[in-house]
């Protein structure tokens, strides 16, 4: 199994979770379920969160009575997510695996890939392999929702998101920085060697980490081409954030959220 990217950062799962606690997971799951029903689908009875980290979206789904599975390459994140589920008395099946190649016991109705985790699919081949594996674990007509960086963040000089911030809880304060000015972009591979810095004050003492790994950017048109090439999915909708009325071209758009529908299985040609 491939080692997870930025593994030093993800090893400190609780600090990572605190850093991203500004996210409103309840509202985001509200949106994700609404985006699914907007396509005429029933609410899901099962969900798979890929690249799940602390598995906050999967846990919120479990809280709503949806059978939840999470998947991540980081052993530390798997252990942390399971502990969160235990503390909340929620049922979560958490699998440690590469999101390009995994096997689950049962298919699901809804799959999620959040917080730009698709950027760790470093090539078009990786992306298509990932789509093939996800499709194999989605019921026909099932929905796959991806949250990616908005293309304007790498096609224009202005960023739509903050890249450095602080969060605190109790006696712990964490400063997080995702990317820095000197990070090198390769225009051929569309990858950037992204520097991530984590500094924290904790009751157990200070923590200071710097980690670097490649991440890839994807454009809307490129993903349309990859969907056509891979063949299992069609694009059903796109959004610029966690609001149904916010399109990708909206001036307020800060994410590229794509709703994919798994195509019905093709019937074999008659002889």
Helical content band: 25-40%
State the CATH class of the largest domain: Alpha Beta
Number of helices: 8
What's the overall geometry? Answer: globular
Give the distance, in angstroms, between the N- and C-terminal Cα atoms. 41 Å
Elements, N to C (H/E): HHHEHEHEEHEHEEEEEHEE
- Oligomer description: single chain
Structure description:
The chain has two domains: 7-154 and 217-262, Vaccinia Virus protein VP39 (Rossmann fold, 3-Layer(aba) Sandwich); 155-215, S-adenosyl-L-methionine-dependent methyltransferases (N-terminal domain of TfIIb), CATH 2.20.25.110. With 271 residues, the chain is α/β, with parallel strands linked by helices. It is built from eight helices and twelve strands.
């Amino acid at each position: 199994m491939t080692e997870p990217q930025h593994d030093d950062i993800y090893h400190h799962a609780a600090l990572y979770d605190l850093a991203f606690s500004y996210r409103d997971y309840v509202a985001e799951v509200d949106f994700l379920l609404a985006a699914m029903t907007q396509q005429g689908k029933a609410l899901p009875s099962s969900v798979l969160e890929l690249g799940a980290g602390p598995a906050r979206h999967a846990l919120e789904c479990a809280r709503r009575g949806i059978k939840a599975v999470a998947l991540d390459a980081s052993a530390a994140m798997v252990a942390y997510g399971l502990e969160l589920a235990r503390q909340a008395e929620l049922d979560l099946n958490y699998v440690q695996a590469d999101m390009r190649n995994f096997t689950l016991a049962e298919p699901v109705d809804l799959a999620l890939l959040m917080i730009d985790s698709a950027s760790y699919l470093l090539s078009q081949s990786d992306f298509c392999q990932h789509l093939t594996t996800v499709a194999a674990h989605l019921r026909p007509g099932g929905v796959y929702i991806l949250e990616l960086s908005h293309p304007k963040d790498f096609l224009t000089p202005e960023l739509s998101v903050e890249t450095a911030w602080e969060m605190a809880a109790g006696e712990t304060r964490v400063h997080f920085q995702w990317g820095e000015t000197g990070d090198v972009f390769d225009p051929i591979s569309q990858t950037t060697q992204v520097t991530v810095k984590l500094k924290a004050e904790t009751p157990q003492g200070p923590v200071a980490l710097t980690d670097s790994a490649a991440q890839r950017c994807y454009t809307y048109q490129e993903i349309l081409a990859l969907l056509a090439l891979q063949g299992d999915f069609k694009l059903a909708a796109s959004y610029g954030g966690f609001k149904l009325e916010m399109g990708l071209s909206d001036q307020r758009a800060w994410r590229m959220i794509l709703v994919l529908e798994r195509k019905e299985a093709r019937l074999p040609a008659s002889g």
